[in-house]
## 1
Amino acid sequence: MGKITNDKDYHILIEKRARAVSKRIVDVLVAVIGIIVTAPIMVLIAICIKLEDKGPVLFVQTRTGQNGELFSIYKFRSMRFCPRNKNQKKYGQGWDKGVPDSFIFKDGSVANPNVTKVGVIIRRTSLDELPQFFNVLLGDMSIVGPRPEIPEITAYYSKEQRTRLLVKPGITGWAQVNGRSLITNGEKMRMDHHYVLHQSLYLDICILMLTIKVVLTSKGAV
């Protein structure tokens, strides 16, 4: 961290810390309320997942968080249980200058045969993301921020692409209310970069309101 050389730097530092504290308070409050309100829904989803194929209720995966720190993200499992994923994708071929702008992590035009019946419903309604309220309480995630990517992809980020890692990843974000899973990596990067530069409580509230609209219409869901 650079030294504080004048009053302007001091006020900027205080403002950043105040913004971080207020964002954390809002995150905790929203996460607690979210867990309380959706608890019956989460219990019902867990029961349905267990009844369908007896596998684990939660899908736990390593993701890249703020400043490149790794953490475990929690989601309701939406795909058939497989102890070993033999068809795991390989990334990085030809990515010498960063993740290509044309790259799309999920292809919404292709139906995945491994998605369960319950999985189809919770994916389209984004209910599979509800366990991430606990990620917010743990401090790994925020309610609003860039969606966390897997390390196999972030390892190939260019210097510019790494700017999206300067803030905590979120359950929802600016990119998610502007296309969700259907946008390219280049579009996502531009939107996440915009959020990092202009993040504020007002922008977070706007994104939350737009998230409700997107979820209700299932726009961009896969």
## 2
Amino acid sequence: MNWIANYVRPRINSIFSRREVPENLWTKCDDCGTMLFHRELSDSLNVCSNCNHHMAITPRERFAALFDAGNFADVAVPDPIPDPLQFRDQKKYPDRMRAAQKSTGEKEAMLVALGEIGQTPIVAAAQDFSFMGGSMGMYVGNAIVKAAQEAVRLKRPLILFAAAGGARMQEGILSLMQMPRTTVAVQMLREANLPYIVVLTHPTTGGVTASYAMLGDVQIAEPNALICFAGPRVIEQTIREKLPEGFQRAEYLLEHGMLDRVTDRRKMRDELISITRMLMRLPPPVKGHLAAPDDMAASAPDPAKAPTRTEEQPSRK
């Protein structure tokens, strides 16, 4: 037995060798290139702490941060015909669907949920851009109609998070028909006098902006989100002119009256709670169930004054 070769050398190598770091511990910011620790990035809702760039976030992650204590219940959406046009390009449409479902872990491009925000019951719907670009197909149309029906049935406001590249080409005209369908769903909310709040995230384009995404009673967007029907490159090629800087971004649309607010994702929950309670004619939101220490001191009873029966709870007799 060679003691140096079999024991000493491996021991030295184990001490001085570089430890391997798992690849999923750090994420590179798409905008500034800063390496962000995954826990810190998750705590900041996928917002870069260096440049404030808003990265993609899944509907379930968004709902976990939006609803009280992260509790929400999925709403079942009717399934459409799987492949109505028998569409095939480089791959069959069902094959693309299975690949998207495997990569995202979701059934389709939109998730509908019930829950409470700031103790205010709501219905929420969110698109997943990582699922075939969040494209609007028959399932997305069914999801919005179902969300509107649940909101009317339960008398709750509907909050929708839009993120899409447009209509789903594999469903052709059936996809385009979701534009009037979803417009009718929004009208159902109007007739029931229920608020419809839209949060536009990056990117929201195509037929989505020509229908339900721009019909909200209140239009909010995340910072620097691309919001348009046709993209800047297509417009520049059509008019053969250079577009203004920041054209079709959230801040540009806010300046030109297309939006009501541009709100940081980390402040979005508080913003939505305030707007929802105001539109539902509810008292202003409060932090927690107990009064703040100063309020408790101001409202504390005088110790010298003994409570009487009328100041206590009424007798059960």
## 3
Amino acid sequence: MLNLPASPKQHLIIFTRYPEPGRTKTRLIPLLGDVGAANFQREMTEHTIFQVQELQKAIDISVEVRFAGGDSQLMQDWLGLDLVYQSQGEGDLGLRMGRSLFDAFQSGAEKVTIIGTDCPGVNAQILATALEKLHNFDLVLGPAIDGGYYLIGLRQPIPELFVNIEWGTAQVFQKTVDIAQELNLSYVDLLPLADVDRPEDLPIWEQALAGKIKRSL
């Protein structure tokens, strides 16, 4: 089978953090310890990358990892040479996401989605659905049960969606929808999914792992 280059018209950006002990998944450190929380970040990112690789088997899409902490060499040593790595840069989450979207559209992408690595329910099918819905909608959002979102997809850069939002709060998703309505954007939601951020969220990860093992049998 020929390995054709991915189409830059569809682009996926993965936001993650290099798993340095003490500086990642800090809300899980009291339960897992510095190293345990970093290893958990490592596992969740690798789980997300696996799902993205499954997506790449089905459709042409370019993939980029925007990272915080570490550097490009550490990221390559960890996740391999097949991915494009770019530092998230400075600023709050909104500024960093808006910058990554602007760069992707400047490079010729026509449909861009951003995901994090905190939501083990994100799979290749959900990612493909998001891209499909961008045929008909300006904005695609994957609502997280905690009030944020695990995915955002756009057909053009819309910086207004990333300002005046208190990131990390339970109002992020609703505030984003409110801004979209003010801008008269057409938008659609995906399935609500759960993030894993706190000790009480760990059963969500365990369920995802159990399902992954079951599918591989």
